[in-house]
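Researcher: Structure prediction, please.
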Amino acid sequence: MSLLSLALLHPVYAAPVKIAGVQAKSYYSENGATYHPDNVKDGKSTPPWFEGDSGNGVGSWIELDLGGEHRITRLQILAGDWTSGGDWSRANRPGEIELRWSDGSTDLWALDDVWRMQTFTPSSPKTTSTIRLKINSLHSGSAFPDTAISEILVFDDQPGSTIEVKSVSASSEYPSDNDGAYYPAQAADGVRDTMWCEGDRSSDGVGEWVEFDLGSSTQVSGMKICAGMCASMAIHKKGNAPTQATVMFADGASEQISLKDFPLPQKVQFSTPHTTDKVKVRIDAVRKGTEYDDACISEVTLER
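Model: Predicted structure follows.
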């Protein structure tokens, strides 16, 4: 087994600001399917918000109500329709977004045309109670004339119980395909239905691991983990899901944990707090999937 120390295509952060409400200029609805603005704050990559304007989406906007003023340090976005790789390529994706803060000031955010989470960092923290994202330009889809955004995450400068993760590496990674990408950073991106999946074709995932680098020594008392493919119960059953794991710390200490077989975050309290700059989760046993012989972890949140 070869070690993959994978460079991140985007940084990983602590828990995002809870978005109080969302409104949009329009949203698309057809044949009983509604692509509501609230979809961008549900913690999942699907379903997306689709604008419902008569044109191609340029000039459409969506506005986040943060429930009060926050000093915003970063935004992250899943641009386009993340239902599948095919859906992502067929629908329009935002190219440039104008960010309007509650004081009326604006910033421009140029988005690459990549099926990856992307990050905007203002030159200095922005104090705001709302953020309006207006689509100025597009990356055009191959089939659909409408523009989608699947998820928006907002981060401020307030410390909390969740520990910031600087980077993520893993023992292996399943290659990206039409259904998604499976790189290690997705195990700590705040989106429950993106995931890291191991890529060792000779095993069912036992012995594979994912490691979270905290950047400096931090006290870790527990974590929340969503083991397996956590998009839905039906998808969860298709792949291998970890049922036993060892959590290892930089000082050589470790904790054995048991995981229930369901696609929701599980709380794990360690027997004692550990001071460490890295936390490694090694898969020790799995429940076999009905279709895929690869083990996945969708999300890990480390807690002080």
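Model: The chain has two domains: 21-156, 167-303.
Researcher: Thanks, that helps.
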